[in-house]
Amino acid sequence: MNSPVVTRFAPSPTGFLHIGGARTALFNWLYARGRGGKFLLRIEDTDRARSTPEATAAILSGLTWLGLDWDGEAISQFERADRHAEVAHQMLAQGHAYKCFATQDEIEAFREAARAEGRSTLYQSPWRDADPATHPDAPYVVRVKAARDGETVIEDSVQGRVVFRNDQLDDMVCLRSDGTPTYMLAVVVDDHDMGVTHIIRGDDHLNNAARQAQVYQAMGWPVPQFAHIPLIHGEDGKKLSKRHGALGIEDYQRMGYPSAAIRNYLARLGWSHGDDEFFSDAQATEWFDLGGIGRAPARLDLKKLDHLTAQHFSVLDDAAVLQELRSYLTATDAAPLSGTQEEALLRAMPQLKDKAKSFGQILERAHFVLTQRPIQPDEKAGKSLDPVSRSILNELTPHLRNASWERERLETIVGDLAAEHGLGLGKIAQPLRAALAGRTVSPSVFDMMVVLGREETLARLQDAATGG
């Protein structure tokens, strides 16, 4: 019987949740959830100088917004330092590690001599096979006694069979001279103790896999299945950096993207399921597998993200859009909506979210229901309310007073009036839009009339016609 799948996401709390880290978390989450397994979270906070509570909070917040729930409590790597040291001493006792008393000056002298002689600068400690009786009473580090001959092979689910010559791997330090564990040891011990079966992470960690395999082998522990995924590049094909703009997942929240669209988009960055571009969380969970991950770096393409966003808005439940809109307002430090405004938004939501590419666009289109009379047109919209247009709006009002308040009927009435004046529908639609919304960008004027209702529509038209 196969053991249950356990994946993990293990960020360092030294800054925001990077878009690449968010994708790694998503891949781990999808793989575990699709197999009834566990998705665990570990905060790798051993770098005390750079790790901050604020960064940890930002990571947890980013994962929560993204909709990636984890099983159990988030684990602090720093708090497990005693367990890591215990394993180092176990390897010492079993002869799989040794005490190295070499100083930094001695190590640097070795490397300088090696460079001068054209030899490998990979440090070879003279203490590797030293008799313990010769050990001085001095500070030491603990090094793993790595194999010197042969090869270390990583059977990677993405990269394939990756072979490392053991003579190119050093005896890595697993315990520093102050007794604190190194990252390379802590990762292995934590993954083993957490029961991680699949390690899905960036391919910048591929070389680490060979060195970490030494600890697994020394302890007689099963080696998890590795899957090293290519990094994300910018649209210019270069590694993501500040020049590419938004790097943190919270940036995308503040830009107004719904989390469902981000999940869909990130899933497609480096992974594919046939030609499918737009899919639901349920489909992604069912379809996701490691075989669908490519080896080439994925490229960010915000036009694709915009396209996916419009598709997701079209299928999202109106109440769900409003719920996430609240989070968007909080993230952008905007004032919350009143209960009356939220009710108005829900009434208008089908029109507001149509082809929308961000929450900002939805709010811009929603201006007509979020504002109150008298409507103050902005400069651009105000230009369409010239005396001729005001006169036509004044003429339109009686036609609407007793009309059945349905979109098709309203469109017919306005169209007939435009024809009487020898005008195209658009010539009346623009001043109508200015009167109802005070903006040049809004939903259809007829949709706005239906949402606003007869009394409010007529009042706004009267205000515009009289300049009130």
Kindly describe this structure.
This is Glutamate--tRNA ligase. It catalyses: tRNA(Glu) + L-glutamate + ATP = L-glutamyl-tRNA(Glu) + AMP + diphosphate. Belongs to the class-I aminoacyl-tRNA synthetase family. Glutamate--tRNA ligase type 1 subfamily. The chain has about 475 residues and is mainly α. The protein has four domains: about 5-75 and about 230-305, Rossmann fold; about 80-230, HUPs (Rossmann fold, 3-Layer(aba) Sandwich), CATH 3.40.50; about 315-370; about 380-465, Orthogonal Bundle (Arc Repressor Mutant, subunit A), CATH 1.10.10.350. The chain has 20 helices and twelve strands. The protein has helices spanning about 20-35, 55-65, 80-95, 105-115, 185-195, 205-220, 250-255, 260-270, 280-285, 300-315, 320-330, 340-350, 360-365, 365-370, 380, 385-400, 405-420, 425-435, 445-450, 455-465; strands spanning about 5-10, 40-45, 75, 95-100, 140-145, 150-155, 160-165, 175, 200, 225-230, 230-235, 300. The chain has a three-stranded parallel β-sheet, covered by helices on one side. Strands 4-5-8 form a three-stranded antiparallel β-sheet. The termini are far apart. The model has no long low-confidence stretch (mean pLDDT about 95).
